[in-house]
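Researcher: Re-running this chain for the archive, since the previous output was lost when a drive failed. Same request as before.
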Amino acid sequence: MKFSVVIPAYNRAKELPKCIDSVLSQTYKDFEIVIVDNGSTDNSKDIVQSYINQDSRVKYFWQENSGSPAGSRNTGIKNALGEWVAFLDSDDYWYETKLEEVRHKIDNLSDEYIAISHYEDKEIDGTKVATLEHGKNISDSPYDELLFKGNSLSTSSMTVRKDKLFEIGFLDIRKDYFAVEDYDMWMRLAKVGKFAYIHNTLGVFSISGYNMSGNTELVNNNLKTLVLNHIDNLCIANKEKLKKIHGSRIDYYKGRGYQLNGQMSKAIPILFHSIVEYPFSIKKYVSLFFALLGIKK
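Model: Regenerated structure tokens:
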């Protein structure tokens, strides 16, 4: 089997049909769908069972809630039969040629390439607002770029060789990596192989009002922990300087998140602290200026 599509789900009965239908509608048919239910209390199981009754490629695993999609994805990887694992979040969906184009890309790559990414449309509450050009400006060996410039990849656009996921030890499920564990995995994968990029839009990244990415404090605190941990593991002399620079960069992200949400009382001190930590960034001063004026821009 070429692909195992791993879908973690928690109380996603409303979103699952669109997600699953987008996979079953693929023009390339050599795949299985591995759905891992992370302890749902809605009727997600019944929804999936209706698909299982119609298509033997759909498989379902239930587990106690692990508190993170990382545990569900790991269960999916361990039960995958395919040569490649294609990740898909349960509130996202693909266009019908996604797997066909990924397969074509794989067939034209050497064995040193272990992961494929592509562009996605960004959808907020059902309305498409942008195209996310994942991987447009990064190399095929992106560890340094991911670490020092930020995560430019998306889980639902990534397809990875299964043996390499076993090699790196799966996703890290530690509590302080919650919401950034995929970013950590891309960086660890970048140490063991090359990434390739398809500059076509093959799926949709969907954001809704309850999407966890909206938790500014949690996401950015964990992001800072992750980045500083990776810098600590580098074999270089200037680690403390890099930690200060990139710690302040992530503080800036946090401040900007609050600013864009209109929470200026939280944004202003964080943006100011980011400047104090590393003052050599014009955009920090611009953001602080607008925040002081109460402007979300």
